[in-house]
Amino acid sequence: MKKNREAAALRLGWSIKEVLNCLKQPHVKLYAIEFRERFIKTMAQMEVAALKKTGITRSSIESRLMDLALMDPEQTKGSIDGQVKALQALGNIIGLTKDDPLERKSDEELMDLVMSAREKATGKTSPVQ
Questions:
Q1: 16, 22 in Cβ contact below 8 A?
Q2: Fewest CB atoms less than 10 Å from the CB: which of 5, 8, 29, 98?
Q3: Are the CB atoms for 35 and 44 separated by under 8 Å?
Q4: Could you count the other beta carbons within 10 Å of the beta carbon of residue 65?
Q5: Helix segments in 13-106, DSSP class H
Q6: Residue partners of 24: CB distance under 8 A and separation at least 6
């Protein structure tokens, strides 16, 4: 950052103090913010274009993960770790992995849920244990 300011001062024939005062002005700050946003957007577009040239897209990644997930165990030397990880990654991409609402429930709360569901299904109340 310091080098850029010094280089700007040299190019403009200004002192560093003049450059710093110029950078503090609101319209210059606004321009710098807009320039940075355009620059980041352009760089992102270039990165996406480079990835597309190599054939890396969201759909190709999903397709490859599905291929890995569906491999026969003989092809993976009997280990299914790769398939499990591929399925987990696919689940994350698709949005299937959500928090389990029953994960933090105690055994008593789980039993209450089961009993109330049973009562709704059968229409009968069960004796309290």
A1: no
A2: 98
A3: no
A4: 20
A5: 16-23, 26-53, 58-69, 81-94
A6: none
Sign (positive/negative) of CA torsion 111, 113, 119, 125? Answer: positive
- pTM value? 0.38
Query: 107-117 burial, b for 16+ CB within 10 Å, e for fewer?
Result: eeeeeeeeeee
Contacts of 110 (CB under 8 A, 6+ apart): 102
Sign, CA dihedral 73-77-78-81, equals negative
Q: Are 69 and 86 in contact (CB under 8 A)?
A: yes
- 14, burial (CB in 10 Å: exposed 0-12, middle 13-18, buried 19+): middle
Amino acid at 41: K
Picking from 54, 64, 52, the residue whose alpha carbon sits closest to that of residue 90 is: 64
pLDDT at residue 39 in the model: 93
Residue type, 45: Q
Burial of residue 9 (CB within 10 Å: 0-12, 13-18, 19+) is middle
Question: DSSP class of residue 123?
Answer: S
